[in-house]
Design goal:
By secondary structure, the protein is an alpha/beta fold. The chain is about 50% helix and about 10% strand. Helix 5 packs parallel to helix 7 and helix 9 runs parallel beside helix 11.
């Protein structure tokens, strides 16, 4: 990705890759994977490496209730990115890159499809750097996927990565009686964002005098409590979606 930007002139002009490109020569990148795996911070790292500022786009703030308003907002954002040489970063990009609505039943549906068509046009003409990040890559419209050069999957950290994450978030100065190796072993399935939240909670318990040191048993309890909340969230999300969409005859609900 960095090489594309730093050597774009040679790649596109000298080697003539621009012969089959559309009007724009943007670097469009998509980061996808489970939450907490570092998609946002990687976008920041790329912007820093390129010496660029970063414009974060939240589609909820871009979306307008006015007809055509969302499209106008998107045009302004892309214009600002080019004028300021800023990296565009769309977090939770599935909200804007999702499939277009085929059965148009109300005026709002036309507005959604219009905004998506505008975004496709903007991507074709854009000459900067744009990064999308999502936990729901399967929801993307194929038309957007074709315009993305790199699709990078962010996986949950392995044992060695978890050890590095614990070392980063729980420094040597924190009172503890547990090794980073042990912490990595008991946190299988957790991502960087999860480990960050757990260490902050442990730090607050130390700060308020509820504990005097961090041991393996305390960490296990925090991990169990944290993962139970995540499981409950997933269960509630499932039942909310099925209550809206309805059960079909093949749907089975079983207790964990």
């Amino acid at each position: 990705m960095i090489a594309y930007i730093q050597s774009k002139e040679k790649l596109l002009s000298e080697w003539e890759f621009n012969r089959f490109l559309k009007t724009g020569s943007a670097l469009s990148v998509n980061f996808f994977g489970v939450p907490g795996t570092g998609k946002s911070i990687t976008a920041e790292a790329i912007a820093h490496k390129l010496g660029m500022s970063i414009i974060r786009v939240n589609y909820g703030e871009v979306e307008s209730s006015l007809v055509g308003g969302t499209s106008d907002n998107l045009v302004l954002i892309f214009k600002k990115a080019e004028e300021t040489n800023s990296l565009l970063f769309f977090d939770e990009a599935d909200s804007v890159l999702s499939r277009r609505i085929s059965n148009l039943s109300q005026a709002a549906d036309h507005g959604v499809n219009s905004a998506k068509s505008t975004l496709l046009t903007l991507l074709d003409k854009f000459n900067g750097v744009i990064i999308f990040a999502t936990n729901l890559f399967d929801n993307y419209d194929e038309a957007f996927v074709r315009r993305i050069l790199f699709n990078v999957e962010f996986l949950a950290p392995d044992l060695e990565m978890r050890q590095q994450l614990w070392r980063f978030h729980l420094s040597e100065k924190v009172p503890k009686e547990v090794s980073y190796e042990s912490l990595a072993n008991i946190s299988n399935g957790l991502c960087g964002g999860d480990i960050k939240n757990i260490t902050i909670k442990l730090g607050l318990r130390l700060l308020t005098g509820k504990i005097s040191t961090i041991d393996e048993s305390l960490v296990r309890d925090e991990i169990e409590s944290y993962t139970e909340v995540k499981k409950r969230q997933h269960r509630e999300q499932f039942f909310t979606e099925t209550s809206v969409n309805g059960f079909d005859e093949n749907t089975n609900v079983v207790e964990e």
